[in-house]
Amino acid sequence: MHDTIVFTRGVPPTDAFPTAQIAECLATAVESDAAVVLQYGQQPGYAPLRALLAAEYGVNDNEIMVANGSLQLQDLLAAHLVRPGATVLTEQPSYDRAITTFRRRGARVVGIPLERDGLDVTRLEAEVKRQTPAFLYTVPDFQNPAGVTTSLEKRRAILEIADRYGFWVIEDIPYRLLRYRGDSVPMMRAINPDRVITITSFSKLLSPGMRVGYMVAPSSLAAAVTKEGENTYLSPVLPTQAAVAEFIRRGWMAPNIERLKELYRPRWEAMMSAVRRYLKGVVASEPDGGFFVSVTLPADANTRNLVARAKEIGLVLTEGQAFFADPDEGPMPDGERFVRLPFCAVTPEQIDEGMRRLASLL
Amino acid sequence: MHDTIVFTRGVPPTDAFPTAQIAECLATAVESDAAVVLQYGQQPGYAPLRALLAAEYGVNDNEIMVANGSLQLQDLLAAHLVRPGATVLTEQPSYDRAITTFRRRGARVVGIPLERDGLDVTRLEAEVKRQTPAFLYTVPDFQNPAGVTTSLEKRRAILEIADRYGFWVIEDIPYRLLRYRGDSVPMMRAINPDRVITITSFSKLLSPGMRVGYMVAPSSLAAAVTKEGENTYLSPVLPTQAAVAEFIRRGWMAPNIERLKELYRPRWEAMMSAVRRYLKGVVASEPDGGFFVSVTLPADANTRNLVARAKEIGLVLTEGQAFFADPDEGPMPDGERFVRLPFCAVTPEQIDEGMRRLASLL
Description:
2 copies of one chain form a homodimer. By secondary structure, chain A is of the alpha/beta class. The first copy, chain A, has 2 domains: 5-16 and 255-361, Aspartate Aminotransferase, domain 1 (Alpha-Beta Complex), CATH 3.90.1150; 19-249, Type I PLP-dependent aspartate aminotransferase-like (Major domain) (Aspartate Aminotransferase, domain 2, 3-Layer(aba) Sandwich). Chain A is built from 14 helices and 13 strands. In chain A, the strands form 3 sheets. The first copy, chain A, has an 8-stranded mixed β-sheet, sandwiched between helices. A 3-stranded antiparallel β-sheet of chain A has the order 10-11-13. In chain A, helix 1 (19-32) crosses helix 10 and helix 4 (70-81) packs parallel to helix 5. The interface between A and B is large, with 50 and 50 residues. Chains A, B: GO terms for molecular function: pyridoxal phosphate binding; transaminase activity.
């Protein structure tokens, strides 16, 4: 009963991994193309995987770059795009590691408030008028950490602003294919591929430990970021990329994604119903997919030292502040009241018990 | 007869890869530890591999960090150690990619002339007196590109200076175990482990495409560089690291190194005898192992446009200038006359014919 319940990391559970299939694909990929897979080279990523992804996205092979995970790509992109004094915009809240990465490359990171249907477009334009950013970083589908999906109208409005003022939009879409209800909203690159850098990975669809992430971008940018990569790690790790190509070639990806949705859907339902049951009247995201529900606790709730008090009763939470881009400007009341609730790596029973504990603290 | 002969890259030939064994180790490693190998985590590297390496070096596990290749480690180390305005010292000539990496992290890179038994210690001390460097980067065994091995006396002298003035020495030792004659010189870390960061990889012993490189360093430094890595790529690629651990655990590493030495020794002999035959009187390194012989052509040899002229007769050479740290200060006569001759990926017949062609140009 008092087992610790962990509501912190957006990681897949072990039973999400198609272990035997991955092992088979690794062995086959190495045996069938050793001269390439075990050698230096393939700086933009393993060519057959790039070809498969190019076909999927309807682009040329030279618009695809595959690297050692998508955070690595974000770091290389920031190294290439961020000049001294540059601003980078993110949603607020946003993925904490992306914020850190952009800061480490010298950017001033400014958060644009996230609403129920995507970021506040008026605030975006006001900020852009002040200083044209190097890029806007957005997670448009089932956002990490909030669970929000950006509406088609807002996607169009954001890209209209990006085109008018001249900056890149990075859409990071690792959760996009894990939709539990409703229809997909078009990707931002479908609206304006000349302004959009799409980044995603196989971490949520196959395995994070393989670290296979990729970027779809105009070929000149892909070439420049590939050069940054070559100067950083010489060549990407190839056996894992080749295994992903083999996995796709065998037709195993679509059924695997269906299996994952069957695994995660009951957890998603359990989290949404536990929020309704235990946190009556609290503002919650109601995501259509992905890994996260989030809640913003009411101003009169007892949120002081929430993470520490939760730990005492066996509930592990992430500090909400971590997802807000501007903690340097003092604590944000929104950050203190923000709770991210990842549901994929916990069972429905754990979700119910965890939410009961959370409610008992407020 | 006029097949192109490639004397450029220090890469292993395809038949150097123990392909079937690597495939088997990948599959076994993933199947036997999927919850770790396919998941996020293990930021300092796959724990069982770190334990095996720690035992090999007689250090604690927390003194080992494994990353996606050793160039990645050099980049992370430079990110951590190079402050604005800092100097980094290298041998001259040195590994071109290391020079580029340190520059990209903001270092002023200064080359210390390399002699037949290691760098010029007097010049090292003079340079250090001018400004204490962040670190000295050295390849003490069968150096890339020159093939030189630093003598024990010079290793001691270098570390005495490093200790007196207070800077790190990075010893990069990827070729060390590929010795074709004579006895090993002690590693620099055996002389003073508090001043030395040892970097190496399995690229030359197993496969470059797997990108498994590691660092042996004091635990506080290993922890700081691990944090740099986590902020850059979140987690390292794990299946390939786990496969290396499995390869070692099965006792396959030592026999594989013996096999590689049997493969490379005739090529090494062919290169040394071809140098003697075709380049009479020319100063050549006579390495005891590794991948490279190098020659410094006489001042009166016709070295103008050597690389371009070689290409016309089907011989691919690397510009010697690339290995010299100070090309910004104008062309170096030494660089123009320096020719690196990698012998591992070419057969004895190709070596003989390639050297005949080179001699015909001078």
